[in-house]
Amino acid sequence: MPIPRDQFDKGLDETRYKIIKFLTANAEKAYDISEVSQEIYSVELPSDWKWAIPTAIGRALAIGNALDALVHEGLVNKKVIGGNPYYSIHRG
C-alpha cells in the first residue's frame, strides 16, 4: 500500500505520521496525550467499556512513546504545564 510522500521523506511510521498531520492541522493549539490518542484512534467506548480500558491504556502509552520520539527528532514541542505534558507541532 502506498504512503504519502511527506511520510516517506520524514521516515515516519503510520502512528507518528498521523500525530504530525493532526498537530500540523491544529498548529495553534497544544494537546495532552489523551487528547492526541483520542484523535488518532477515534476512541468510542463500547457499552461494556471496562474491557476497553486496557486497550485505551496501551494506545495512550504508544502515543506517548511516539510523541516523545517526535520531540527527540525536533518535529514536536513538549511543555509541562500544571504538571501535565502538552504537545504541539514544532514551528521552524
Structural write-up:
- With 92 residues, this protein is α+β, with helices and mostly antiparallel strands.
- The protein has a single domain (5-89), classed as Arc Repressor Mutant, subunit A.
- The chain has 4 helices and 2 strands; from the N terminus they run ααααββ.
- The chain has helices at residues 5-10, 14-25, 33-41, 53-72, and strands at residues 76-81, 84-89.
- It has a two-stranded antiparallel ribbon with strand order 1-2.
- A hairpin with a 2-residue loop joins β1 and β2 (84-89).
- α2 (14-25) crosses α4 (53-72).
- The N and C termini lie far apart (31 Å).
- The mean pLDDT is 87.
Q: Which fold name corresponds to the CATH topology?
A: Arc Repressor Mutant, subunit A
The secondary-structure class comes to alpha+beta
Roughly how many Å is the radius of gyration? 14 Å
Shape: globular
Please state the second-level CATH architecture. Answer: Orthogonal Bundle
Main sheet characteristics: 2 strands, antiparallel
How many domains is the backbone divided into?
Answer: 1
At a glance:
This protein has 92 residues and is an alpha+beta fold. It has helices at residues 5-10, 14-25, 33-41, 53-72, and strands at 76-81, 84-89.
Map the helices and strands.
Blueprint: H1 5-10, H2 14-25, H3 33-41, H4 53-72, E1 76-81, E2 84-89
Antiparallel strand pairs: 1-2
Helix pairs in contact: 2-4, 3-4
